[in-house]
Amino acid sequence: MEGRGRGRARGRARGGQQGGPGAPQAPRPGPQQSQPPQQQAPGPQQPWSRPPMPQQGLSQQQQWVRPPMQAPPTSSAGRGSRLGGGDASDVVPPQMTAGAVSGQAEGADPQARGNRGGVRGRGGAFRSEIIRTKPSNMQSKQGTSGSSIQLTANYFALLQAGKWGLNQYQVDFNPPVDLTRDRKKLLRDALQDVGINGYLFDGTNMYTPQRLHPDPLDKFVEHNEEKIRVTVRLVGDVAWGDRHYIQLFNIIIRKCLTFMKFQLVGRDYYDPNNKIPVHEHKLELWPGFFTSIRQHENNILMACDVTFKVMRQDNCYDLLLGCQSSNPQREFQSQIIGSIVMASYSNKTYRVDDVDFKTTPQHSFKMKDGSECTYMDYYAKRYSIRIQVKNQPLLVSRSKPREIRAGMSETIYLVPELCQLTGLTDRQRENFHLMKALADHTRIGPPQRIQKLKEFSDRLNRSPEAIQELKRWDLKFSQDLVKFQGRVLPPEAIIGGGDRKYTGGPQADWTKDLRSMLMFEAASLSKLAVICPGKFRQPCNDFIQCLQRAARGMQWDVGQPRIFDIGDDRAQTYLEMIEQIIAKANPTMIMCIVPNNSADRYSAIKKKCCVDRGIPSQVILARNLTSKGVMSIATKVVVQLNCKVGGSPWTVGIPLSNIMIVGYDVCRDTVNKKKSFAGMVASLNKQITRYFNFTSEHEHEEELSDNFASFLVIACHKFKEINGRLVSLYNIFTFSRGCAMVG
């Protein structure tokens, strides 16, 4: 099944216009989305008093050939209904009244943003170039190795595309209008009486299946007591197969999801009516679906996959009440800043950037008409919500530049009482029982996943509104998942010491074989120093015996490790002991036993060993010392120890020579979310067992390509230094998050 990569960071309010009042530059509440008013919460509790106890309670697919263009339907023009939120519901089919659709709307294919190509002059259209993955000189790209197997993919084929074409129009405003939101409104007003019944507008270009008469169209529209000249001029026909068709298809299918009673939360659609409660951990799982329509050579396919949203049953004010330290404000800031919250009255998500302890719901802000309104009065009038706690601080969410350009306020103020916590904290992720409880619902095998996708297809084809919407656009999707022939390759031969070979079997697990095999290259580990808190001394002794037993099976000697006791598990205590050991014992490697996944302590140990002292280190969680599969853990630790002191556990046969394998990944700083780190490795020998590594810190995306190029040059020089010549072939791999389907 296809996993989904996460390009953009989650957490901002998604959609178009802001429902909150006030001038764009003024802080204001979060926007409205079409939802019923929130139910009244229990009576208020003051901050930092004792918190209340929780209540339990396709076999053959048609090629995408452009159909003949038909005359646009004729019907009276008018302003299309807007269902709120700026999502897929903004799309209006040709048979309906007109409405504007943002080119950046939810559901637009990420690759569909960018160039303006795909059209020719007024004479007609050409077909966009389709990427072919089969070289022109090959009859077939199917392999013959291994055995054939019938596969099912998480795709539904588009069997029927609309018999209409798109025209591209350029829209100009004089004097210029900066905000995309205002541009949409001006264009909508300008097209009220000209017979355009459905269009797509990205702020600069309009796409519609109809021809505009007259061409060009000039209209004067009043805006903020000023006459704005709106000029709409035909650029040409959009080629059948252009990205804008795909973009439109994506928006249409997302509109169908709203008809199917899914709710938009962040970027994806979820089903709160089928939520899965996890009462013992005060969590809920909202099941949902991710969809993305793209062109795959001659076919258009809709990728569909199951996704889940973790919703916490407590709100941000509950978190505030739980902060009972000597400095509760700082404690609350440390826990809430950087997290993603959902406004319960709109289902929109926001990233919390700060907490304003000087502003409360009793404070006022400016409405669009210039009048003053308190947050309490605003929520009472707009959502029929009565805020219980008047003196609670407000959460601050800062909009991104592109969101500000679209008309969103620079700063949005949120009431903690009305914001639901989403996702998991680091402490929750470390809770084995919690993660297992979630995994019981989210880790579904192929048969169950196929069943879920079939249920999605059935639900789509049972919804009268969704069926009617697809008919209006003359679209039809297959009810069955795509099926095709694949191949199971024979297991790769793993080469160990003494040129002995073995395989990982169907499960790609060779841990048991490894215990009795020589490692490919065994390095010397004569002095292993182990730092351990006194309370873990006995489990540590037992684990070292397991290490020695596993190493003997591989005919590798780890010597007699020496244990150094420490009185507590503070980071500074570990650092002081590391200094003492290096000064007196001159160890080959240092192993640290730690009680939990403290990021600060782990970073301090690694910095001291790797940066300050240049000595290999191994950090092990204390709970792994007594784990049920302790021998399996010990075997894997032995492999890591050998690698860290210069050895290689195994290799595979590489038929090519003079090649370099490059691996690359990027992750965000867990503390400073604005900072990212890129890590790269490059192989240096034929066996692909020796690597050169490089890390870089960056705050701007454009630094990524610069750092990548610089690293590759350095790696090439290192390769030449070792092998006496430069690289002939590069294989570059990038890595994405496989856990992104649970938010």
Structure overview:
By secondary structure, this protein is α+β, with helices and mostly antiparallel strands. It contains 16 helices and 31 strands. Helices cover 25% and strands 25% of the residues. Among the domains are: 159 residues, Response regulator (Rossmann fold, 3-Layer(aba) Sandwich), CATH 3.40.50; 76 residues, no CATH class. The N terminus and C terminus are likely disordered. Helix 2 packs antiparallel against helix 10. The two termini are 18 Å apart. It is globular, with a radius of gyration of 30 Å. Strands 1, 7, 8, 9, 10, 11, 12, 13, 19 and 20 form a ten-stranded antiparallel beta sheet that branches. Strands 3-4-2-6-5 form a five-stranded antiparallel beta sheet, covered by helices on one side.
Give Rg in angstroms: 30 Å
Q: Would you identify the CATH H-level superfamily of one domain?
A: Response regulator
Shape: globular
Main sheet record: 10 strands, antiparallel
Instruction: Tell me the CATH architecture of one domain.
Output: 3-Layer(aba) Sandwich
CATH class of one domain: Alpha Beta
CATH topology of one domain: Rossmann fold
pLDDT averaged residue by residue: 80
Individual helix count: 16
The first-to-last residue Cα distance is 18 Å
Sequence stretches where pLDDT stays below 50 over 5 or more residues: 1-26, 32-128, 736-743
Helix content: 25-40%
Output the structural class: alpha+beta
